[in-house]
Write a structure and sequence with these properties.
Immunoglobulin-like; five-stranded mixed β-sheet; 279 residues; 21% strand; 5 helices; binds copper (II) ion; alpha+beta; 41% helix
Length: 279
């Protein structure tokens, strides 16, 4: 297809307009707990940790923008003011103590300014507060299993559901948690290394065979939150989504009662069969 210059211009203009419209609506079209088309920002935060991650990201973005523009300004000044034509007789200055101290000290102070909130965030993520409940997520080729040792010791599998929306994120059995409760997530792998990640919660932790890793989240909003296995784990790596439903305390209690019955007879249910053997 050949385009005249005018047509090309019109096309490019259309693309640019589309881009601006998309950028403007980027935040508006983002749905809580799941990705949105053309999204270029972090997902909306649903936990204190993710709120912190978002703040830290924005803080660094501002900082790096200011630094980049400053360095660009210096470069442009050097190119314009000190080229051979506009500055034929160069200065013979080689040292300037004040400037040398300043360009050593100021970057150090900037790095300290980054380090303080960075370590605060790291400790917030790694220091697990007293948990209200624990859920064990086991990564398997290629689905997740969730065990609720504190709520009746049931375990169930969570597989991607082809017919569910959002596409490639919906599952048959969602992980259900109560809102505003500290949930400790323990992860392990049954076969190879997987990784348990939910962007809106600000968590991502490897699920390694033979090891038990742990992280935590406290969802402050109810609704559906989606994540994906984030460690390349084989041919269906892209098809083992994580779906977390955050509900009220009462809804959680009634779900637990139902789940205990529903999953008691799940074949391969480690907890149930262990309990059965013990009786
Ligand atoms: Cu995986």
């Amino acid at each position: 297809m050949k385009l005249s210059k005018g047509q090309m211009g019109a096309r490019l203009l259309g693309l640019a307009e589309g881009g601006v419209a998309l950028a403007a609506s980027g935040a508006a079209s983002a749905e809580l707990g799941q990705p949105a088309p053309w999204e270029y920002r972090l997902q909306e935060a649903a936990t204190p940790v993710m709120e912190n991650v978002t703040w830290f990201h924005n803080f660094l973005l501002v900082l790096i923008t200011v630094i980049t523009l400053f360095v660009l300004g210096l470069l442009v000044a050097v190119v314009i003011k000190f080229n051979a034509r506009s500055n034929p007789i160069p200065s013979r200055t080689t040292h300037n103590t004040l400037i040398e101290v300043a360009w050593t000290l100021i970057p150090v102070l900037i790095l300290v300014g980054i380090a303080v909130p960075s370590f605060r965030l790291l400790f917030l993520e790694l220091d697990i507060p007293k948990a209200d409940l624990t859920i064990k997520a086991t990564g398997k080729q290629w689905y997740w299993s969730y065990a609720y040792p504190d709520n009746g010791k049931f375990e169930f599998d969570s597989l991607m559901a082809q017919d569910k929306q959002p596409r490639l994120l919906g599952v048959d059995n969602e992980m259900v948690v109560p809102v505003n409760k500290v949930v400790r997530v323990q992860t392990t792998g049954a076969d190879v290394i997987h990784s348990f990640a939910v962007p809106a919660f600000g968590i991502k932790i490897d699920a390694i065979p033979g090891r038990l890793n742990e992280t935590w989240f406290k969802a402050t909003k109810t609704g559906m939150f989606y994540g994906q296995c984030s460690e390349l784990c084989g041919k269906d790596h892209a098809f083992m989504p994580i779906a977390v439903r955050v509900v009220s305390d009462q809804e959680f209690a009634s779900w637990v009662e139902e789940a205990k019955k529903k999953y008691a007879s799940t074949p391969g249910n480690a907890y149930a069969s262990a309990a059965g053997a013990a009786q």
